[in-house]
Hints:
By secondary structure, this protein is mainly α. The chain contains 18 helices and 6 strands. The strands form 3 sheets. A two-stranded antiparallel sheet has the order 1-2. Helix 8 links the parallel strand 3 and strand 4. Bound molecules: arginine (ARG). The site of arginine has 11 residues, from helix 6.
Amino acid sequence: MWGGRFAAGPASIMREINASxxxxxxxxxxxxxxxxxxxxxxxxxxxxxxxxxxxxxAGLDTIAAEYEANGVPVNLxxxxxxxxxxxxxxxxxxxxxxxxxxxxxxxxxxxTDFRLWVRDAIDEVEAGLNGLQRALVARAEENADAVMPGFxxxxxxxxxxxxxxxxxxxxxxxxxxxxxxxxRERLNECPLGAAALAGTGFPTDRHMTAKALGFAKPxxxxxxxxxxxxxALDYLMAATQASLHLSRLAEEFIIWASQPFGFVKLPDAYSxxxxxxxxxxxxxxxxLVRGHAGRIMGCMNALCVxxxxxxxxxxxxxxDDKPPVFEAHDLLGxxxxxxxxxxxxxxxxxxxxxxxxxxxxxxxxxLADWLVREGGIPFREAHHxxxxxxxxxxxxxxxxxxLPLETLKAIDARIDDRVYAILTVxxxxxxxxxxxxxxxxxxxxxxxxAKQDLGL
Length: 456
Ligand code: ARG
């Protein structure tokens, strides 16, 4: 492509370090679409003849069909997807192929291809996260009244419902989706036609190509167009945040599936056995989701470091932008699919959850609140009285609501038998009716809104 100036070809190691085709072949669909939009514009503006443009466009269709059928050929002599496609076009249609690259450069070409690719990637992630939300909402609705221990410090804190716990992840995924949607909107400007860095002297119509490729508008600064990859970083940052949420959900499943907890039975389809310990059912898929989050964060970090010291405009370092985005996208797609599958098929052991919620003095706060409400006692004092009741219950090896009234009265004479109505875990969750609270009425109201938002 630059034989006019160079007498010798590249060293083989130069060919190898220089080539991006082993990975940027994943951009082929976007590359063909970008070239077709470009050549249609060149013809309309009278920059190339309609006959040449037609030949180029038909040639690009043939190449797309070849790639679809046989994959993209990898030959390191042709550095990247742009050169592979252009050289194949020359084989197919002859010298007219050389007119395609008028008024553009690989710098704006790759920026365009990559934006298109990331836009498609965001659409895929959005669909995946939508599926995950649906699964969460469905299981939350089934379990809107199922009581479980709620934890702080992984210590039994107050009873909550499983539906409420699952809906917490629905909210996280909702915000993840908004981050991807936001990234999509910001990236949706077309760099094509910025050319190498300075724009072009040809009478191009950048609005036409932007429109043809589904962008909202052309980018407004040619230097910025070819030299920023913030759109890829926006994707990676949104992916990192989403993967952190998935990882926390995965971690809950790992804990819940352990024998001491026994809150869930993981489906066979998402577990593995052990070759020597027949009793084992390992939460491998969840562990890998947890592990993948680390790799996705690594991808984000890699591109941040690549970009941080680069002057304007294009530098070849930026060729390294694609592998981390591709890797993160593949890992995220798998993680979303695995967690969705697990949520859909896991068996929740709600009897076991309830049993543990009832045994952990989880309604101690309810007793303290009752003393405040019914006895007019300051909360600090009520907390102290309740602490003594918990100690007595511990001593007697009884749950709070089974402590005899005399024992409670001996601790504080202001306690009477009405207290038993608030000491059960069901009464406790039912009472937490504040907006966003764990009461089944609140959880069901949120689920109804979520279903409406998801179009269910
Ligand atoms: N393969 C290159 C990349 O991925 C395409 C752009 C090359 N531009 C250049 N001026 N060498 O970044």
